[in-house]
Amino acid sequence: MAHGLTYGSVLSYWEHKILFPPDGVWILGAGITGLSTALGLKALKPELPVTVVDSGVAVGGATRRNAGFACIGSLSELLDDLQTASESEVFSLSAERFRGLQNLRHALGDAAIGYIPTGNYEIFFPEEKEVFEACKDRMDDINAAFKDLGLGDGAYCVAPAPPGLPSQAYYIFNHLEGVLDSAMLYQALLNLCHRENIRVWWGLDVEKYQEEEGAVRIWLHPRGEGKVRLLALCTNAFTQRLIPGLDVHPARGVVMVSQPLGKTENLSPAGFHHQGGYNYFRFVDGRFLIGGGRHLDLVRERTLSQELPEDICLYLTHLASRITGLQNLGFEFQWTGFMGKGRTKRPIVQALGARTFCAVRLGGMGVAIGYDTGCRLARLMAEAL
Ligand SMILES: Cc1cc2nc3c(=O)[nH]c(=O)nc-3n(C[C@H](O)[C@H](O)[C@H](O)COP(=O)(O)OP(=O)(O)OC[C@H]3O[C@@H](n4cnc5c(N)ncnc54)[C@H](O)[C@@H]3O)c2cc1C
After folding, report:
1. Tens digits of residue pLDDT in 218-264
2. pTM for the full model?
3. Which of 53, 54, 98 to mutate for ligand 1's pocket (most ligand atoms within 8 Å of CB)?
4. DSSP code of residue 359
5. Hey, what domains does the chain have and what are their CATH numbers?
């Protein structure tokens, strides 16, 4: 394949040569989906030059900005989902999340990703007793449905308050879930990519692309272009800019991590869900992590603005005090991240043309299904080679 035109490009001859090797495949987005796609392709076609390109440098996509919950859905989240989707759709997605986690853990190893099989809880405050009762009422049939899907017995059960958590609240425990360390997960993915000779490039912003005879031409911002054999978009929340018509929009999430609490005893290692999964919290490294609040203004939160929404930060701060009983909990880290959402909860994994593909719209489930989704896209791409 001839190299692309570089007149006026900011790329040096050498940079161009590294970035656009003959017959190279590009994956856009160095999150869990893009890196897993690259790994999946290398497993199928070891000789293929695979390059992952990402516009982020210090601040990346959701994979480096999430909360590290390895989860398949809290009961109130499933009940919410059942309002708009059938039982078979909702329950089979939970099963896919469970299997996705198993495959991720198998590929990277629990120690490498800091995975702890804690089981996670859903918390209901006294004023949320009605929702708790509704969840309890559906628990047996959902457990039975999960059993039929091969997830074993008694996925959900009512549980006493774990140590250090409000004793007047109600709790439902799910033993199939766990937590992990998102920094370790990311590093483990990168390590595996380096081992497989996958090139990962940062600070390269793809502005547009176009399929041509035998190749895909790519334009970088501000100036630079080249040709690749196949292109995959694993750009999740940022996809609209490149494919405006696709049903995926950004959903901003806020996460906050406290200063060290000065103690490690009595801190449950489990993750906690609240309010249909919109809120979540856990203790991590002797600190308190809390996130959520998007449901305060779902329409406004369809944004890619990195600004911290003040009302949501305040809401999470109050919630944190209520959970921990600490009135002056200081937050050392507060950040936003972007999920890709759409009309349904399933990711979009498809060919966009003869040489372009996408795996996007991972929602709040990317830890669980990102690896499998990438492997699925890799199989689709390998058929086009
Ligand atoms: C605050 C928050 C908390 C979350 N918590 C959890 C959780 O606890 N458990 C869970 O399972 N999931 C959670 N999620 C969701 C999960 O993090 C995502 O589903 C998953 O990380 C998506 O991975 P991805 O690789 O598809 O996308 P991303 O990780 O977002 O990667 C997409 C990448 O594409 C790059 N990109 C986009 N456009 C371009 C372009 N034009 N040129 C070059 N590069 C481009 C971006 O820079 C980005 O790095 C959370 C998400 C958020 C935002």
Report:
1. 999 878 899 999 999 999 999 999 999 999 999 999 999 999 998 77
2. 0.95
3. 54
4. E
5. 13-64+184-248+344-383 (3.50.50.60), 249-339 (3.30.9.10)
